[in-house]
Amino acid sequence: MGKKKSTILMVLLTIVMVVLLFITAFPTMTIPFTDGVKIWNPAVTQYDLGAELGGGYYAYYYPTGVISETEFKELDAEDQKSYTQWKGLYLNNDPDFGIIDETEEDENANGIVDKFEETFAAATKEITARYAEKGYSDYRVAVVDDFALRVQVPASEESENMSAFNSACITFERFSKTGGMTITLKGSEVSQLEDKEVTDIIKGFSLYERYDMVFIRATFTELGKEMLNEFAYEVEAAKAASSASSSSSAEEVVLSFMVGDEAVIELKEDYMDNGYLTTSYELRYPIGNASEKAYAETVMILLNSALNNAEGFDIEFTAIPTSAVRTFGSIYGELTMTLLYVSLFAVLVALSAYAVVTMGKYGVVGVYANASYLIVTGICFAFITTGVYEITLGTALVFVLGLVLMNVIHAYTYRAIKSEFANGKTAFSAVKNGYNKNIWLTVDVYAVLLLGALALLIGAAGLGTLATQALICIVTGAFCNLLWTRVINYMFLSASNDKYKYFRVVREDNDND
Amino acid sequence: MTNFLAKVVKKLNVLTLLAAAILMISIAVGTICGVSGFGVFHKDALLENSNTLTVSMEQFVFDSEDLLKEVEETCETALKGVSISYEMKGDMSGNSCELVYLFNEGVDLTDAKAALETALDDLEGTDTFKGFSFVVATNSEMATGILAKDYVLRGVIAGVVLAVLVFAYATLRTNLFKGVAAGAATALGMLLTTAVIIITRLPVTASVIYVIAVSGLLTAVLAMVALNKIDETEKTEGLTAEEVVVNALATKEILTFAVLAAAALVVVGAVATAGVRWFAILALIALVVSAGVALVYVPAIYLPFKKKVDAKPVEGAYVGAEKTSTKIKKIFTKKKEEKKVAPVVEAPVEEVEETPAEEEVEETTEETEEAPAEEVEEATEETEEAPAEEVEETAEEVQD
User: Could you tell me if B280 and B265 are in contact, meaning their C-beta atoms sit under 8 angstroms apart?
Assistant: First the structure.
């Protein structure tokens, strides 16, 4: 490549990289003199963060009749008499609540009704299982003073139609349900449940995605198919009656899947026409577009939990209003992300400086490679999403180690090129042979890392997410080491006046060059 | 250092005992601590049971930076005698917000609560906080859910699959024995990292699994670097198994990566906040263990296999023309002795030259059908020389 051409390409490349770096990592700032976008947010500020780095939300689950000390102190003196203190909680004395045992018949002799203790323990176990099923990278369910729960989730489940806060509020509310599952047709329990359980009708619930939509899929047993046939018959009968009498006051035929008193899935007449009930008696209940997958997952988990605990739990938790959900920042402090970015930037600058100091102009190629690595990984982390895709401390670790590995392999390549010079090779020949000499080491290293990251995809929650992030870092590093640095080096070398000095090699001019 | 490592890699038995001892100690420590209620890992307050102290206040105070700062300073002064694990600022959209302080389970908050209530009562009496009220509450928390479903099981399966894939790749790329060394080293790296974290009782959060997973990846990578160097060194002929392994120690390569990575982790730990610092320390442990396993255990595991392969050549393999040369020598010696016993008198030189030489050459060439060309040349040279010597002797006898 001619000197002029390579110089122009170098300048263009530098401009493009500066622009991309700006998009990826330039600090947030207010843009003056604009009516539209007022604040510039680079890609690194748009990450979904784990609870350790970005905080999240927490809420308290209080059974009916149990209140916190803060609520107790807000009551007047008369109302306060109705409550008995239990550690940091206050329990209602009224026998109707079934909490305080004034007969002293309880086995534990702690003044609490045994049934309440057992029911609370069972409900806690089930609620904990629901959150475990959800697959958060970082969450906490804790029993507070024996008879309340505090649940903490990361702030990451954002979708097109719902903020992360609203998503968390819905999850807290859904998972607090303690009722069992029943199925009603036109308001009355279906006949199949007279002598059978719900599990004899429904096998289970799962997620189904198609046409950029997400559905809850219910699979039925033979008895369930019988129930659906009955529903279809009722729908036809209602349509016939409606067209005969031309009256619109006929009762709507609705098949409802209830959790406690709430209808979670309602099968109406039009669902038969819309194809949501397939000929193989599989129900596909639409939740929304594909971005609502996290919410659909919440509903599916609740339905399966209610199905497996059809009797429900004889305890109810006080409704959690949106105003009672707390937002908290990073538990490591407000400056956690800022300081983490500063430290990662310091590592990047240090490695780039090390490359330039030890490898001269060839080290500048390393600087471009480091910038490329930052751009590609930074943008991919922000814009590749697979549901819950959180940036955690593990992400920072794979980023740093991938960056170091890329620089070390770059240094090995430089060493190989220099040894080719020592054998008397010309500049371009030395570069070619140097890269070829190192190629199998580079391929082996990245192949093993790729296989390792694929294996880690088996891991649940945060480990699976870490594997995806590691794959991004590995592919980027491999691309930089195997191809990108070679391209940049070719451009720089072509533009260089003294190709030997470029590699810090002393050699007399040779006519053969 | 290379000399020391060269001695160490020859002692696989000692290294095996060392690894086994570390694992056994970690199992013992984990079991004792687990049974005693301290947990297999020394878990952070976020994962463990904890005590909390909550200060509820009005939204207005919470939203005002100066007022909130003053409240926080008052709280920290009152709580000076107790060790705070974490502080959370709980912002609510309703009328009140709260500060939540997390403590380890064993911390008694009775006196701290009383001191804080007194301090906040004093604050309420000031002009700045007139009309505002604070409520202090203490609670105990028993963690019932911190890990996703099947988190540990799937993590273990992923680790096993990782080691198997590394074994498979290294075997396909090089040979079975190097594959075994790579796979075993990967598994050992993850196990030893876990063991060291348990033994050192460093506080861990749920992020510890990331450290263990990354240690597996690091060990696999550094093991491939070590095996790559062994591969290159094996191309040099004439080296014994021990010499190959000792000369192939990838000390410089592995230590360069380890030092640079350690420096990067130190920078991250030094600049970032305390919680991130502990994570960086755990990552440093993973790095040191991975580098050590790759540097020492990979060549040590491979050495006995290499020795076995070198000592036992493959059955039926062609050894070389050395065998043929010995056989030819025996034939010539026998022929020489036969000729001394029955000397040749009337045979012309040419005939002497031709018949036995040709016969010998024919015999030699028949016998050396498969011999390398130079060995055949040697044999034919010998046969030419031998009859020539005999001819000279014979001619002298004839003349005499």
Answer: yes
Here the tokens at position A147 are: 């008879």
pLDDT tens digits for B95-112?
Answer: 788 888 888 888 888 888
- Using an 8 Å CB-CB cutoff, list chain B residues near A457: 158
- What is the rounded average pLDDT for all residues in chain B? 79
The domain boundary, picked from B86, B110, B141, lies at B141
Q: What tokens does A441 get?
A: 């080491």
Q: Following CA atoms A5, A11, A17, A18 in sequence, which dihedral angle do they give, to the nearest 10 degrees?
A: -170
pLDDT score recorded for residue A433: 87
- How is residue B139 written in tokens? 């609670």
Instruction: Give yes or no for a contact between B162 and B290, defined as CB atoms under 8 angstroms apart.
Output: no
Where in the sequence is the domain holding B301, given as residue range(s)?
A: 2-40+148-311
B116 touches chain A (CB under 8 A): no
Q: Which of residues 74-93 of A touch B (CB under 8 A)?
A: 87-89
B57 pairs with which residues across the strands?
B97
Closest among A183, A254, A195 to A220, alpha carbons compared: A183
CA nearest A401 in B: which residue?
B261
User: Cβ contact (<8 Å) for A448 and B166?
Assistant: yes
Mutate to test the interface with A, among B69, B88, B193, B211 (most CBs of A within 10 A): B88
Whether B336 is covered by a domain: the verdict is no
Torsion, Cα of A268, A271, A273, A277 (10° steps): -130
**Structural tokens at position A64:** 């009916």
Using pLDDT thresholds of 50, 70 and 90, give the confidence band for residue B369. Answer: very low
Count up the domains in chain B and report the number. Answer: 3
Task: Enter the CATH code of domain A3-47+331-502.
Answer: 1.20.1640.10
Question: Residues for chain A: how many in total?
Answer: 513
- Residues 141-160 in B contacting A (C-alpha not used; CB under 8 Å): 141-151, 154-155, 157-159
Beta bridge partners of A182: A258
The CA distance from B147 to A141, in Å, is: 10
Contact B154 A460 (CB under 8 A): yes
Residue B342 lies in a domain: no
Query: Does the pLDDT value for residue A511 go beyond 50?
Result: no
Q: Give the Cα separation of A240 and A144 in Å (integer).
A: 57
Bridge-based pairing state of the strands A66-68 and A56-61:
unpaired
Search chain A and give the residue with CA nearest B213: A456
What is the band of B380 on the pLDDT scale with cuts at 50, 70, 90?
very low
Chain-chain contact of A140 with B135 (C-beta, under 8 angstroms) = no
In this structure, how many other beta carbons lie within 10 angstroms of the beta carbon of residue A235? 21
Residue B334 lies in a domain: no
Task: Name the most confidently modeled range: A146-160, A345-359, B56-70.
Answer: A345-359
